[in-house]
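Loading example: each entry is read as two labelled lines plus one structure line.
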Amino acid sequence: MTEHRHEAQHAWFLGPRAENADLMERLVVEALRDHAFWRRGFHPEEGGFIPERARRSEGYLDATERLTQELSLLLARLKADLPFFSGRYLGHMVNEQTLAAQVGYFATMLYNPNNVAAESSPATTLLELEVAADLARMVGYDPRTAWGHLPSGGTLANFEALWIARSTHDLPLSVASAAKELGVRLEASLPEGEHVPLDKLGLWELLNLSPSAALDLRDALFRSVDPVDARRALDAHSLSGVGYQDYTQQLARTYGDPLPAATVLVAASGHYSWEKIVRALGIGAGRLVNVPIDSRCRMDPDALWATLRAQQAKRTPVLALVSVCGTTEESAVDRLDKIAEVRERAARELGITFHLHSDACYGGYAAAVTWGKEGRRRTAEEIRQSTGSAWPEAGWVEAMTALSETDSVSIDPHKLGYVPYPAGVFLLKDRRARELVALDPPYLVPTPGISATEERFLGRYSIEGSRPGASASAVWLSHKVVPLHEEGYGHLIERTVVGARRLHAALAAADLAGGRAVMLPRPDINIVNYIVRPPDAPDLAAINTFNEALYARLSQRPGARPPEYYVTRTRLITPTYDGAIGPLLQELGGVTREEWAAPGGGLVVLRMTVMDPWLAEAHTTDHVAGFVRHLAELCAELRSAPERRR
Amino acid sequence: MTEHRHEAQHAWFLGPRAENADLMERLVVEALRDHAFWRRGFHPEEGGFIPERARRSEGYLDATERLTQELSLLLARLKADLPFFSGRYLGHMVNEQTLAAQVGYFATMLYNPNNVAAESSPATTLLELEVAADLARMVGYDPRTAWGHLPSGGTLANFEALWIARSTHDLPLSVASAAKELGVRLEASLPEGEHVPLDKLGLWELLNLSPSAALDLRDALFRSVDPVDARRALDAHSLSGVGYQDYTQQLARTYGDPLPAATVLVAASGHYSWEKIVRALGIGAGRLVNVPIDSRCRMDPDALWATLRAQQAKRTPVLALVSVCGTTEESAVDRLDKIAEVRERAARELGITFHLHSDACYGGYAAAVTWGKEGRRRTAEEIRQSTGSAWPEAGWVEAMTALSETDSVSIDPHKLGYVPYPAGVFLLKDRRARELVALDPPYLVPTPGISATEERFLGRYSIEGSRPGASASAVWLSHKVVPLHEEGYGHLIERTVVGARRLHAALAAADLAGGRAVMLPRPDINIVNYIVRPPDAPDLAAINTFNEALYARLSQRPGARPPEYYVTRTRLITPTYDGAIGPLLQELGGVTREEWAAPGGGLVVLRMTVMDPWLAEAHTTDHVAGFVRHLAELCAELRSAPERRR
């Protein structure tokens, strides 16, 4: 049975040597001809617009010549792009795309549907909703109450998550002011379960209602008064309605000296785009609080608890907590199950609540590993049998299962979903929250039979307007061929984990011209990080220089010969990596923490993303062995010839 | 010579009846094979990973079967999408895409470059910069000091424009506070030309420095102190650094009672996404001020002057002014030349300055009409000779030329650029301003020879992270084959204007079963709007119902038979259309302004976008005549059979 998956994997991609080129060509040509004949079959009684005669005119021939000529120039220029398809490319998080995704994208691009609204995409808006429901199920949401759509990528998905979190956080204040203005009495349910009159709550309590309690309040207001009045009154007391200056002043007038501005807690290992997002939203980079990580680069639940207590001690509300499922640097998976426990405890013991978001842009698809073919969760033991390794720990499965405890999740199909750019996914557990950012074109005329607010007007709830229906098709077709369970993406991602562990083990054991690789812990998914420790490097600076020199030989430089293998690198800096650096410095030997933490310090780390499923075992060509051999050669070369100025 | 362009046009598209299917298939297969053999030529000494034997295993055959089967299901489902390629589709702003764009997209998608940074896209990041430079030249910017890139679409381009405008507007405040903290004395240049010490300026003056004066101040600060200190101090006094609550409080502490929050002025005809953007940025929907339009649906320069005076009278700073080049509803082109004059006068006489943005998402490509092949501007008279019509007026050319007066422009190649979704463009006249939103990953290690801040790290300045290099290729190849002047896009768009005018004239003259079409003015580009006035409709409600019924028969309904022709519709409402509604109501007859302005009122308008270049003249099939005939039939049918409940 496992053999069957393995065989199927051979058909999922074009292949490192384009082994499936004939299959792909057949499908691409099929899609193109099918489209062409659809055009011809549309009102076949009509004459054409491009007569055959025109196709031998001077102008036509010139234009065709130009197209052919410029295309061949483009094809030539594209050869400067990177061999993502090859097991020799082990740098950033990109590999081949599935055949299904590539063909699905191309086939749909010919129709060019715009998924902003079903009016411009009757077919593909439905595919987008199906894809979002697939992924909602995969993370454990109930697709009937959840909602999702495809923004262009993870940064926008995260942006939408925080935009909604900001709106939900402030919602009780807006509802309280609106209710007062409209003379409505409402009750709020506190985190402890108690029900109290809304007008009895102070600023701190209002900012610490749970997201669902906040949405319940909004529903109650809409039930109590004319929706038009409710909407207007809420808008007159919301940040997005009145703007930050007046909103801040309103708060000060209503509640006296306001509390400190709310913070966004993000795992220290979080992506740097979170800073971009809080800056753009006006929340402010200074309100971003990093939660320390542990030695596995996961958010430390004890540190989270301490952070929350510190926030409470300063009476600082928490707007949202961002946990990471698959860090971009290490593929570390936060123990979301433990984080969810801390959240519950904080509500109970500290009276603090917040929106919980999982940034699963990289790791989200790995949840497919936890699903059996027949729709039940697999145990860690079952998965271990399938990978033939000690991976995963039980806690990993619990962390993945706990995705269902979040309020929102972002996932990038264009990462571990193996589909072409652009494809991000934003998932919201309680779809009511999308109304907080919804906007209708004022000129939209309600059409009998088609409601303006219905599911199929995706642009209503997203920051983007026009967007390619082809993205939705690509993901949809890929999910059909490579399903979101043990026989599809689950298998594929398992193989990459196995490959990453082979690489990790080979590097850990390697003799690198007398030096050795100091390894970061075995990854939670498939990104391998290490530092090459040359035997004679006197200090941290020398070690960093050596690893930089290795990176320079293992990456593409403009004008230079392509390297034998491609890796990337990162730098572990303080305070981000304070929780993880200890064992590494110790193993490096002769490097002090002070040296590392000094300005201009940090530790340069070589980083390899194993998305290639073929690395899991030795083939005719074994890229794991080949890379380690090449790395040893480079180390020898660097030690004999000191770094030249480049 | 014009004949030559006309002949070339036959080669630019696949064609309404896929007349160029053979050409497209040849190029697509060429691109695919070229890519496949590139893979095979990469380390040809290595063995493959998918042995031929594997291709007859059960698992492989099952997976292939599934792919083939699901693809054919997808192809079937796509048939529900709309026939954008046909002259019968005259609804939203989408038509065929150029062959070059489709083939360029597909060819590049096989490589899947990520234009977030050149490290993942050595080839296509350069293409993106070339495309941005092409378009910068087209709008009259100097590509050496301007900057641009490709976000996923117009909404994000507009978002980035306002994000930068917000940052530029507040910049003098941040610089003033930072300079004070760092003990630096700086001079500011006032709109009137005077130079004064920065610490002598009050809040109003600081918020009314010109964008370039603000950027000069920042440069001066960076020249005076260590850039690290400058950056930190600016951040400690900026909205994006400290967040809106603390920023508002800082302002109040520093300047006493702050001024009213700054407003964003937008043409009343502007896209509704501007509201979405000010909401997300925290500027607030309430700070959006609509500038009235005239009877041609263009921003009224006199009304703009009056609005600016009113802002000044209330001491309300203006953050930005958004003018529209090609409204989504009417393709109206603001007289940007006159708006730029008002801006200068406001600086001179009112001491008010602001960021001027042109939302040219729809109309931007029409600037290609103003460029001769040899690189000089064409006169209105020259263009009129080429269109054989009264279009354009001299003012239109002046408006297009005045795009160079703006601080930023957004353009959607996926609209009048005829390329597939997603492709928006953001252009910034003074590239220094992008630094205000720039963010470096903290772990980025400067590499010898590759600067972190250099041109090729596009993600540094944009809200999105990963993005498809294929979009850049598509636009690039399309510009190569259909150049941005009279022989390429200029010709193409001229033809659509001619087609739109044919349609306008035919509708204006049509007998519609005893009724007639009340036409909005001839469009500035190619969107035709009208109201069918049945002879016996007693009031506005009846007229609206009649036009809604027409729309229902001229659009795709789920489950219903496809219509003969596709149109869309909009609704002219108060106060947006106050400046344009008068002549229409008069011509409709028997409809009062009160009726129109009443709640639930508004005027339903049928709207047709003519992006199809083949409508410019009668072919074997004349879709202009065909549509008018069909419309008359529908009117007759509707009058004889009163509307059934649908």
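Chain B touches chain A through 188 residues (CB under 8 Å).
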